[in-house]
Design goal:
The protein is α/β, with parallel strands linked by helices. It is built from 10 helices and 6 strands. It has a 6-stranded parallel sheet with strand order 2-1-3-4-5-6, sandwiched between helices. Helix 9 packs across helix 10. 39% of the residues are buried.
Length: 219
């Protein structure tokens, strides 16, 4: 059975674009659309899609309210937005969102976020990762660990550090001369070895173990 998706966005052009991207995937199908949050919740409760893609700003109910309303129903909500404001990210994740993706992140990340949600993972746009760590107040330890820490290979460590710097999979692939599929496999291996669920978890490990230096102005 394909992954069943409901797209909720108040802009018809965005809904159409998302439908084209998702329906082009062999394992996905858009089963409904909604132009406001209340309709999104009602439709999701009626159709029981696997994933709801919810814009953060919609009439009648926003993406965070949609996330809260569908919590515990088995329907996973991925918030997709133009706005990467701190309060939006923390509120969405705090209410159980299965992802937070910036619209500018591109089609590949949108598709990846849907698959991650179905698999029980939480995907956050790479551009948000360093900023989330700043807000969390994470800082590196005084003494970096040895190269074999956590059982990561040298290549996996390279990938983890680039994830911590907010690089996308495509950017990591270009920098390390790897295929995007290989980068995705490395990230999955890193998450498994570090026992973290997403890119923020990888980045948290990199900063808290001292593998990355604090940026200028950081306290």
């Amino acid at each position: 059975m394909p992954i069943r998706i409901l797209v909720a966005d108040d802009q018809e052009g965005i809904r159409t674009a998302f439908r084209l991207i998702l329906d082009a995937q062999p394992d996905m199908t858009v089963v409904a659309e909604a132009a406001d949050g209340v309709t999104a919740v009602e439709t999701a409760r009626r159709l029981r899609p696997d994933v709801v893609l919810a814009d953060i700003r919609m009439p009648r109910a926003d993406g965070i309210e949609v996330t809260r309303a569908l919590a515990g129903t088995g329907v996973r909500v991925v918030v997709v937005t133009t706005f990467g404001l701190d309060e939006y990210v923390y509120a969405a994740l705090g209410h159980g969102a299965a992802g937070f993706v910036l619209k500018r992140s591109g089609p590949a990340l949108l598709v990846e976020a849907v698959r991650a949600a179905v698999n029980g993972d939480v995907l956050i746009s790479p551009q948000l990762t360093p900023h989330l760590l700043d807000r969390a107040g994470l800082s590196p330890e005084e003494t970096p660990p040895g190269p074999g820490d956590a059982g990561l290979t040298e290549r996996e460590t390279e990938v983890a550090l680039l994830v911590a710097r907010g690089r996308t999979n495509a950017e990591i692939a270009t920098e390390l001369f790897l295929s995007p599929g290989t980068v995705k496999n490395h990230i999955a291996a890193v998450q498994r070895k570090l026992e973290v669920r997403n890119r923020v978890g990888i980045a948290s490990w990199a900063w808290s173990t001292g593998r990355l230096r604090a940026r200028p102005g950081r306290t």
